[in-house]
Amino acid sequence: DQQVKQNSPSLSVQEGRISILNCDYTNSMFDYFLWYKKYPAEGPTFLISISSIKDKNEDGRFTVFLNKSAKHLSLHIVPSQPGDSAVYFCIFGNEKLTFGTGTRLTIIP
Amino acid sequence: DTAVSQTPKYLVTQMGNDKSIKCEQNLGHDTMYWYKQDSKKFLKIMFSYNNKELIINETVPNRFSPKSPDKAHLNLHINSLELGDSAVYFCASSLAGRTGELFFGEGSRLTVL
């Protein structure tokens, strides 16, 4: 039962352009939503979060959007930089976290 | 200093063996976790401990036994290893109630032959 889906396993974006990563979910009972970033041979690291009562949260170049009616979460990175190349996990939380499968983002210089 | 450290980082072993993966965090966190990332890249929680007490135990074979000697350590012991146990295992920690902000270790890649 896959409650969280990241349908794009990979994404390539030119440096300086906007990167948009998407995530869909089925469970309405999540309290908050997160994005984590993972570099090779490292553990995932927290990037940005949003609670279920908001529809947007911004932190520098990163903005997370939540569309509860569509059960859709997205992460916008603008402008994209080479250091953003990593795997991004969307994660949904209540008493525990449920991870998506990740999207590998490659920023092309 | 590594905040959450796991050892070993790589482990190759034969089916049927018993092995352990150790995890230590120096962040002063109350809660520690074990996650498994399988071949399909799903990251799934296995266990969660708060102050040495088990609070989450997902549907994991009882061949897997976590042990928390103190709140800074959470070790994972696996008996009678099977091929399907091959995966990357991540340890993580957080402050109590801050389940969204996990600090992960680098992962331990287990290969069962």
What's the helix and strand layout?
The complex is a heterodimer of chains A (109) and B (113).
Chain A: E1 4-5, E2 10-14, E3 19-25, E4 32-38, E5 45-51, E6 56-59, E7 62-67, E8 72-77, E9 86-93, E10 97-99, E11 103-108
Parallel strand pairs in A: 2-11
Antiparallel strand pairs in A: 1-3, 3-8, 4-5, 4-9, 6-7, 7-8, 9-10, 9-11
Chain B: E1 4-7, E2 10-13, E3 19-25, E4 31-37, E5 43-50, E6 53-57, E7 64-70, E8 73-78, E9 87-94, E10 103-104, E11 108-112
Parallel strand pairs in B: 2-11
Antiparallel strand pairs in B: 1-3, 3-8, 4-5, 4-9, 5-6, 7-8, 9-10, 9-11
Overview of this protein structure:
The complex is a heterodimer of chains A (109) and B (113). Chain A is an all-beta fold and 109 residues long. Chain A is built from no helices and eleven strands. Chain A has strands at 4-5, 10-14, 19-25, 32-38, 45-51, 56-59, 62-67, 72-77, 86-93, 97-99, 103-108. In chain A, strand 7 and strand 8 form a beta hairpin. Chain A starts with a strand and ends with a strand. The mean pLDDT of chain A is 91. By secondary structure, chain B is an all-beta fold. Chain B has a single domain (4-112), classed as Sandwich (Immunoglobulin-like). Chain B has strands spanning 4-7, 10-13, 19-25, 31-37, 43-50, 53-57, 64-70, 73-78, 87-94, 103-104, 108-112. In chain B, strands 2, 4, 5, 6, 9, 10 and 11 form a seven-stranded mixed beta sheet that branches. In chain B, strands 1-3-8-7 form a four-stranded antiparallel beta sheet, with no helix packed on it. Chain B starts with a strand and ends with a strand. Classes of the chains: A mainly beta (109), B mainly beta (113). The A-B interface holds A 32, 34, 36, 41-46, 49, 89, 91, 93, 95-97, 99, 101-102 and B 4, 35, 40-45, 48, 56, 90, 92, 99-107.
